[in-house]
Amino acid sequence: MRSLVHVLTALAVIGLAFWAYRENYRTQEALARADALQSDIAGARQRLRMLNAEWAYLNRPDRLMDLVELNYDRLGLMPLAPHQFGRADQVPYPAPTPHVAITEPRRCRRMHRREPMIRTPLRPLARILDARRRGENPDAIERENIRLRHEEMRDRARRRAEGRLVVLGVGCFAPASSSIGGADGGCWPQSEPDEPRSGAGGARILAQRADITDRRGRVLATNFDTFSLYAQPPQMIDPEGAALRLAEIFPDLDADRLRRDFTGKRKFLWIRRTLSPEQKQAVHDIGEPGLLFGPREMRLYPNGRLAAHVLGGAGFGNEGVSAAEVVGVAGIEKTLDTRLRDPARVHEPLVLSLDLSVQAAMEQVLAGGMSIMNAKGAAGILMEAGTGEIVAIASLPDFDPNARPALPTRAKPDDSPLFNRAVQGVYELGSVFKTFTIAQALDAGLVNARHDDRHHRAR
What we know:
The protein contains 14 helices and nine strands. By secondary structure, it is of the alpha+beta class.
């Protein structure tokens, strides 16, 4: 009898272990599906941000007024003044054109089988117009809608978690109580419950960087918002056509290589780290869902080559699809990189002792002398005698830090425009020794300014 009880107990334990293994396997599959869904949500959010930005551009008051005037012209009525409408539904629209059936390819028909996802817009036009009419901030409406949407997501996640806990409790405690009656133990939770969060985790990339100005507050280096371009080939509809269109927009890209990347096994690849607004619009017009944009903050030097050797340049460090870290690679940008990236001082510009006007004049004079003498290079330094501050420092030839060239690999270092002749160059002293001779004579008291004046008048 006792051996039978032992056998039954062993069978119950084995069954419980098999059930736990199966549930663990199902949990891992659910987590994998959740990760994939999280990635899809991140992509959808990116596309939603783009649509919101485009909608905000189209929702400007001047564009809305143009829309009103255009529709009133079509209807044959007099145009309205801006104060005569305050809501989008008050704008009269012409009669809609009859719908024309267009035969779509089979691939497109398969895509349209999914039911559309209906979501409340973050910036409803009627509320935006009403807020503008009352003098309120329309951005507060978007922030409130985002908060409500996140609360709804947390509530749905909480309800799913509660349902799973109920199913897990019923499935775990019932077999245990039936096989091992009265024994202490069970599937008690081993950790405290955690509040579900809406959003993917990960380390945040610090993309902000302080501005650099001269002694008078004129900007030498600042930040510029742009976008990067990357591709997810599994989401592409026409990869070969997208490769050809991208090669037309970016002539430096190889269409054949893009075609191989898009039709191969790659799931992600970078196409462009930075885009101009015209390039972004051209890529957007392709209409390929597998081509995605990521927000970027790049370094901009509005004065071009001016003080290029002093500023140096910046590039991208840690990089993700939603942000990129801007780090200094040379000059002041690299030497004071920690100061420029300090979050506590990011809104406080770094003030240099340079004077932009004096710097421009010095570089112009050096360029003229270099052209007259047919010289290989030129350099100059202007220092404030009383304080020792560097007011201007130039080295020619120079470069544009917005498109910093690569370091030379074979030629001499001084052949590269990156070479700073005022700091890195080594020269024979020559007439500089005369300065030391006069300084020694002044220190010894053998000569002074009055003695020189009398000697000059006597001659």
